[in-house]
């Protein structure tokens, strides 16, 4: 409910945002300081969190020019770091169904992937033990709620940094550049995010960026279940997890999938009969590590971890992890995206 | 009936002889009017009256026999349906329901064990699918295509291969170490709990309803037979009293024999049907009611076990609509609560030590299961997946072990209650055995005896 409201607001904003966005952004130049202020209200957390954050969206979206800019890297302790230290374990919200990003290897029964490597690096930095981690698998549409309800310290789960979300959670600097792309069977007439989607059944994960993109422009694709958001939700076109889309696609219940190209590459790696459509992603997005809004010490600390993670050129931890998990499905990435920091 | 209109001649032929040709004038009149006239004429003389009374009495006894035959034959056929058709069909529907739920549980258990599924889990899954398919074919053959049950059987027959297909895809992907396997397994479970199990439940409910109807039909009081019997007996007594008053003779052997025959049929009818009623009611109250509760309890234990396994398979990929709790864990909790209530009910319904012992075992098993489940959840929430997995599917001290204990206990309880039902229902059916034919034969004998007895009186007028 709340989420739908948020989406609607954002869609509307985009419409006139292009025209007046800049002007409004100038008018509220105090802008970035609003973030801590919003947190200062103390309205975040608990059941009311969704509502409060939804009402904050317009304010944040208006001044949202550079969502990827994060707090400067610092390795100092704060209340959130101390909480993790006291517990002795970092609680990380991850995916267990995203091949090569975060998934449970049925053979070794451990979680593996690019996201998981990063979680281990954060745990090593804060606690001195890369295995001092409690992994909690969370579905796509629960990433924000899990943070707001203090179920996890950080979410490292192919989470896109965007204007809507920076009003709800605090992001680290970007650790990966991705984009939405269409995935369909090799033999399909669908050739990208364009008119070829007309009349096709397109599957997305509930509450995902891909769903928002279709909501904004669907090219006549069918992408909503009749009873979405109710108890009778069919879970056919919008599903709890992006991987459920591949199940529907293989069974012929949907014609195409829209998801991050990174996740899509993971899906294609599990099914040689499907491929990414279109030359490149139709959006540019950055994945960030998310923490609860206001957990500034933790965000700065994660940014510090990321600085180390990127450092070292071809032998950096980032590149090593990339070669292990992603190079096969997403070849040709020369290095991590450059971090951007807020000036204040 | 060839008495002349004013005939008092004692040498006229008695009843039962073939009719002599009627007079020509009589033929000219309408047949009905002529018969009425002759009846009126006959009624004015004692032999004529005797003949009429005799004929009516014989008819009453025959009617009594015929009504008893028809009514009790219908009751006996309903009782036979209970024993040979509707209860077995209800039990089969319960088995279909159980096999499907068990298959889903085994699929999730095997999946959790990793790429190499344990052979006993695979074998049990195969046996479940095989039994469900076989019973569905049987059920389809013995169900009228126009009924709701047949529709459910069609639905189940259509969806079962879809379900097994999804499970095989899940296994193939899991075997290759692909996370897609888990997504397929969750989809298979969605099909099972969302479509197959509800259809199986509706089938079971319909078949159980048919059993209740058949049993009620068999137990319905035979008012018509009893009424006809009382009327026939009353008429016989009245006739003998009339006889006694007119002739001062105490006994007429024929009428006495007829009275004895009618009394035997009436008593047989009353006692036989009362016993049958009591046994059939007992079968429903002590057997079927317990069977119903135990069947539902067993399904809930299976569903709870499947949900417990899927909590580990899905690991939070599916949440309740309000997004605060894990869907599978929530469903587990709901199922266990229902299971607990049903086991309490089953314990109250169990009427002997042999029946309550396995139910108590099941209750103990459930409480251990819940303790172990809580510990496993705590372990998993702490992030120790491997230990949690061992606490759920390990060979000893696991929730799986508790589940097996509960399932075994419920199986024993079900077997006991099925025995109780079978014994009582067969006794009930037996109590009606021979009654329809016995009643018919005795009624014919009684009618003959009436005619013989009345003819004895008539002959005194010759």
Automatic annotation (TrEMBL), chain B:
- Give the stretches traversing the membrane: 50-70, 221-238, 250-271, 435-454
| Keyword annotations of the record | Membrane, Transmembrane, Transmembrane helix
Identify the taxonomic lineage of the organism of origin: Bacteria, Bacillati, Actinomycetota, Actinomycetes, Kitasatosporales
This one is known as Secreted protein
Region described as Disordered: spans on this chain: 1-27
User: Which domain of life does the protein's organism represent?
Assistant: Bacteria
């Amino acid at each position: 409910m709340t989420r739908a409201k948020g989406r609607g607001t954002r869609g509307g904003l985009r419409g006139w945002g292009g025209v007046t966005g800049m002007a409004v952004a100038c008018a509220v130049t105090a802008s970035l300081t609003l973030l801590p202020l919003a947190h200062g209200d103390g309205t975040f957390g608990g059941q009311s969190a969704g509502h409060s954050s939804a009402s904050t969206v317009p304010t944040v979206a208006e001044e949202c020019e550079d969502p990827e800019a994060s707090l400067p890297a610092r390795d100092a302790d704060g209340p959130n770091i101390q909480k993790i230290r006291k517990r002795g374990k970092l609680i990380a919200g991850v995916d267990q169904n995203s091949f090569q990003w975060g998934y449970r290897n049925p053979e070794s029964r451990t979680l593996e992937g690019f996201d998981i490597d990063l979680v281990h690096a954060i745990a090593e930095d804060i606690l001195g033990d890369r295995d001092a981690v409690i992994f909690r698998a969370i579905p796509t549409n629960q990433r924000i709620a899990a943070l707001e309800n203090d179920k996890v310290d950080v979410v490292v789960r192919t989470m896109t940094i965007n204007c809507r979300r920076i009003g709800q959670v605090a992001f680290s600097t970007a650790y990966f550049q991705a984009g939405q792309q269409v995935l369909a069977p090799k033999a399909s007439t669908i050739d990208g995010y364009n008119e070829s989607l007309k009349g096709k059944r397109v599957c997305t994960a509930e509450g995902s960026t891909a769903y928002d993109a279709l909501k904004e422009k669907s090219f006549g694709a069918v992408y909503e279940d009749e009873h979405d958001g109710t108890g009778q939700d069919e879970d056919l076109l919008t599903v709890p997890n992006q991987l459920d889309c591949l199940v529907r696609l293989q069974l012929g219940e949907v014609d195409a999938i829209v998801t991050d190209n990174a996740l899509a590459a993971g899906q294609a790696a599990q099914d040689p009969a499907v491929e990414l459509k279109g030359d490149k992603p139709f959006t540019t997005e950055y994945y960030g590590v998310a923490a609860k809004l206001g957990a500034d010490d933790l965000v700065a600390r994660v940014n510090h971890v990321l600085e180390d993670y990127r450092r070292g050129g071809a032998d950096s931890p980032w590149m090593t992890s990339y070669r292990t998990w992603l190079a096969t499905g997403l070849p040709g990435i020369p290095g991590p995206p450059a971090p951007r920091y807020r000036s204040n | 009936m060839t008495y002349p209109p004013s005939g008092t001649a004692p040498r006229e032929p008695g009843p039962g002889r073939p009719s002599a040709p009627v007079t020509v004038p009589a033929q000219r009149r309408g047949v009905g009017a002529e018969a009425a006239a002759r009846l009126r004429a006959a009624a004015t003389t004692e032999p004529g009256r005797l003949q009429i009374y005799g004929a009516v009495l014989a008819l009453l006894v025959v009617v009594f026999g015929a009504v008893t035959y028809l009514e009790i034959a219908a009751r006996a056929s309903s009782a036979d349906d209970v024993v040979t058709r509707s209860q077995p069909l209800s039990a089969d529907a319960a088995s279909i329901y159980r096999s499907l739920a068990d298959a889903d549980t085994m699929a999730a258990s095997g999946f959790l064990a990793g790429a190499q599924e344990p052979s006993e889990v695979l074998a049990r899954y195969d046996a479940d699918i095989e039994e469900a398919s076989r019973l569905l074919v049987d059920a389809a053959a013995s169900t009228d295509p126009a009924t709701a049950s047949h529709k459910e059987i069609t639905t189940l027959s259509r969806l079962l291969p879809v379900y097994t297909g999804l499970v095989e895809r899940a296994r193939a992907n899991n075997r290759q170490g692909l996370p897609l396997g888990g997504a397929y397994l969750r989809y298979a479970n969605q099909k099972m709990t969302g479509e197959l199990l509800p259809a199986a439940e509706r089938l079971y409910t319909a078949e159980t309803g048919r059993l209740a109807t058949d049993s009620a039909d068999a137990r319905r009081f035979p008012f018509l037979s009893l009424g006809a019997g009382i009327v026939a007996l009353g008429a016989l007594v009245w006739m003998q009293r009339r006889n006694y008053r007119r002739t001062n003779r105490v006994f007429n052997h024929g009428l006495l024999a007829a009275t004895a025959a009618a009394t035997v049929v009436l008593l047989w009818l009353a006692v036989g049907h009362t016993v049958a009623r009591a046994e059939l009611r007992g079968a429903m109250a002590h057997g079927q009611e317990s069977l119903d509760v135990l069947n539902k309890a067993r399904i809930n234990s299976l569903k709870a076990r499947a949900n417990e396994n899927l909590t580990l398979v899905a690991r939070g990929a599916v949440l309740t609509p309000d997004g605060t709790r894990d869907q599978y864990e929530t469903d587990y909790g709901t199922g266990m609560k229902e299971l607990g209530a049903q086991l309490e009910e089953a314990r109250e319904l169990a009427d002997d030590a042999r029946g309550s012992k396995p139910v108590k075992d099941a209750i103990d098993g459930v409480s251990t299961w819940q303790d172990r489940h809580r510990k496993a959840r705590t372990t998993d929430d702490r992030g120790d997946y491997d230990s949690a997995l061992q606490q759920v599917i390990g060979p000893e001290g696991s929730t799986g072990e508790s589940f097996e204990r509960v399932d075994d206990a419920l199986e024993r309880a079900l077997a006991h209650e099925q025995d109780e039902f079978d014994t009582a229902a067969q006794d009930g059916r037996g109590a009606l055995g021979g009654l329809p034919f016995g009643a018919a034969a005795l009624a014919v004998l009684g009618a003959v005896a009436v005619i013989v007895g009345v003819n004895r009186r008539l002959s005194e007028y010759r």
